[in-house]
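@channel anyone free to eyeball this complex?
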Amino acid sequence: MDIMSFMQSMGTNNFTLIAAFFIGLMTAISPCPLATNITAIAYISKKINNGKHTLITGFVYTLGRMFTYVLLASLIVYIGINVQAISLFLQKYGERLIGILLVFIGLVMLNIIRLNFIKSSGKLDKIKEKLSEKGYLGSFLLGVLFALAFCPFSAVLFFGMLIPLALQYSDGILIPSVFAFATGLPVILLSFVLVFSVSKLSSIMKKVELAEKYTRYIVGLIFIIVGAYYIWKIWL
Amino acid sequence: MNKKYIYAGIGIAVALLLIFTIPKYFTGNVTASGAQISSGIEKVEVYHFHATRQCVTCKTVGAFSEETVNTYFSNELKSGKLVFAHVNVDLPENKALVDKYEAKGSSLLIGVYGRDGSFSKREDTNVWYKIGDKTDFTNYLKGVIEQKFSGL
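replying in thread with the prediction:
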C-alpha cells in the first residue's frame, strides 16, 4: 500500500478523530503550505541550544493554529456562516495578507525598519520585552496567521474534508483541534531536529555564540524571502 | 502550591470531558448516499472548479478528470448526457454555476439530474488521494460516473 492510499484510508477512518488527525497531517506535508512551514520552523528554532524552548514555542505555535481552525469551524458549525463565502474569501486574500506581513516582520527583524514610533510607558515596555524575549506571543500569532493562509489544496482538505466531518458531528471544537495539532506536529518535530543538529554542529565548531548571533538575521531573511514569494505569486 | 491544584483540576476536567465525548466519534462515517433516483438519469455533470491561480495538484485533478471523461464517456459527451467543464470560480459569468454547486474553491463536483426533475450534487474528495497514480484515478472516477448513470 503506498502512502497516498494509506493517507486516504486513515483520512476516511471510521473513528472521526483519527480521520481529522490524518487530514491535518496531509495538510502539513502537502507541498503547498511548505513556505509557511519553513518560516514557522525558522522562527521556532531561532533560539538554538535550547531544546525545551523549541518544544514550547512549537506547541504555542500549534495552539495559534488551533485558535484559527476552531474559530472558523465554530463560525460554520454553530453560527452557520456560509462555508463557500468564507473559503473563497480566505483563498483570495489570506496569502496576500501573509506575504505583506512576512516581509514587514522580516524587515523589523533585520532592523531595517525600526519600530521607534511605538512609544509606550515603562511597564508596557517591560511586558513587551518579556513577550518578545521568549517569543511565545509571537509564535502564537504566527500560528493564527499561517492557519489563515489557505492555498487551493489546503482549502480542499479543510473545507472539503474536515468541515463536512465537523458539520456531521456538529462539533466545531474537538475535530478542528485534532486537525490543528496534526498540522503543527511536523513543524515541531523538524524544528527540534534542526535545533539539535545546529547546536551540535556549532558546538563541534566551537561557534555557538556566532551561530546565536546570526540566527536572528537568517530568520529575518527567511521571512522576507517567503513573504516576497507570496507577493510575487499573486501579483506577477 | 495553589497553581498545582488548578492545573490538576483543569487536567481532570479535560480528561473527563474527553472520556465522555470521544465515544460519539466512533459511530462511523455516514456515507453520503445521494437519494436514489429511480425514474432514470437525465444527465450527469462533472465540473472541475478552480480559482484563477491553480496549484499543481489542482491542475492534475482537472487534467486527469478531463482525460477520464474523454476516454471512457465520449459517446455520452457527444449526446449531452454527460457534461464536463473546468470552471473558474473567480469569473463573474460562472457565478450561477458556482453557487448552484456551492463550490468552495478547487474541487471536483458531480451533479446528477433525474428524469423527474430532481437534482443532487456531491463533492468527490477521494480523487485528491489518487493524483499520484493516473490509472487508479481514471479507474476510480470512471466507476463513480458509471455509478451515477446507473442511478445509485
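from a first look: Chain A touches chain B at residues 2, 4-5, 7-8, 11-12, 14-17, 19, 30-32, 83-84, 87-88, 91-92, 150-153, 155-157, 159-161, 168-169, 174-175, 233-234 (CB under 8 Å).
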